[in-house]
Amino acid sequence: MKKLIFIYIVCLLTLNSCLNDNYEQPDQTIYGNLIDPLTGENVQSKSKGQLVIRLLEQIPDNPNPEPLDIQVQKDGTFRSDRIFTGTYKAFPYRGAFVYTGDTVEINTAINGGRIDFELTPLIRIDVSVRNRDITYKLNATEATGDLALKGVAAMYNSYDEVDETSCSASRTGSYNSLTSQSQIGVENTVTLSKMPVGENYIRVGARLSDTWNYSKIIKAVITEKDSLPPAVKFVGNNNFSPANDSASFIVAVFQGEPPFDLVYSDGEKEYTKENINTKRDTLFVKPEYTTSYFPVSVSNFVGNGEVSSELATVNVFAIKDEFANSFDAYIHEHNSSSIYDTEPVVAFKSSTDGYQRRAFIAFDLTNSDLNDSSEDEFFISYSLVYSHHDLANSFVLEGTEELVDNSLCWKNQPAEESYSHIHTTINQAYGIDKDENTLIRKFDINATDFVKELLDKGVKKFSLRLTCLEKNAYYVKIGSMRHDNEDFRPKLMIKGQVYKE
């Protein structure tokens, strides 16, 4: 009898477990694409974990359902075949993009299946590959706004998973991090010199937020030597050169295998430079008036190559010293009451030593006949006497109507609220120290709007301050008005009539 009762209980339990196993399994499918509305192409993503489609099941009496995330793949597609039948709200979640669409409601039994979302990446990236040379262009979007470029990386891998955490980063040259706001909108080329011969997968990423935007992944077969004919183009549009003994520069960007022989022209005369052993070469020029340069021919061991029709223009303008009397350049140091007397060199420090220094430059236009209706443009010119890095885009320029003098220190600086940010266009040029025949890196900052606004109010004395944002620069030096070399002294210049003897 006991045995029969035991068998009966076992049968009941078995039947109950079978009933439990008969619950409906998740068998609905949701799939689709994340599409850039401008290009019509998929928004590229990280292989795993960066960007998801978030589903929130609409359950009565449960206003906070547990989210269900579908991973977006590196090519901007997503798919899940294990969704329970039900009604969900769906939207893109996380990632470097802006989504302005509405949350989409899906009833898997009625309208389940494919659903596409349109979203705008913070930045678009175009890439082309020529052997180990990676050429990319960062294109601003409606979502870019005032976001600053925090990093760029050209990456490769031996298989088609390529992002900042999945690449051959342990090899020298495989992970090129380049950060400069000036990269946006222009073509840049980097060489992944250690990329091995054979099949590789290449990608460029850029970061304006905590997450990255990516280009498509490009499959390329790398050879020991680039056996294609060479190519060259000039860059350097809108470089400026004062009408004195200073030189300016243009940059020749090559593709192919060095060394290269180059012939270029200014439209009147041809110039030759041979045995160029780099793919990015600086050509120093000294025009007497605004001049455009272009390549005529390029060759290497393969033979003659292709030249670009793009021009590199050096704008020459006169310095009208009589109108701009500069007080001088001064520095102050954070958390210090020390007074820094004017010195021939103004030294910045970065956060690496616990301090931050700023340079101040004061100008007096009292004796000038300038006014806000002038067609002239105003430039603040300064030179880097010493720097570990090219810092043209690592400075913030601000202006105030208050003046600084040689008693300046942190505790008596002009009030913070008196400063206004000067939206600047920074043009890099080069000069030559005539006495020591050394390179001077010069930067001309367009401060026209700020200066004309002061002139409109009748203000003819003002101060500027430069702040160095580069944390790894250790220190940067610029010249003061006491520097022996005039090229190192800060100036307020006017772009006036074309200068010509």
TrEMBL record:
Pfam families documented for this protein: CBM96, DUF3823
Top-rank taxon, per record: Bacteria
Keywords: Secreted, Signal
Residue ranges occupied by any Carbohydrate-binding module family domain in the UniProt entry: 322-495
GO cellular component, one term: extracellular region
First-listed, main subcellular location of the protein, grouped into a coarse class: secreted
DUF3823 domain mapped to chain residues: 29-117
Location in or out of the cell: Secreted
Name of the protein: DUF3823 domain-containing protein
Originating species: Mariniphaga anaerophila
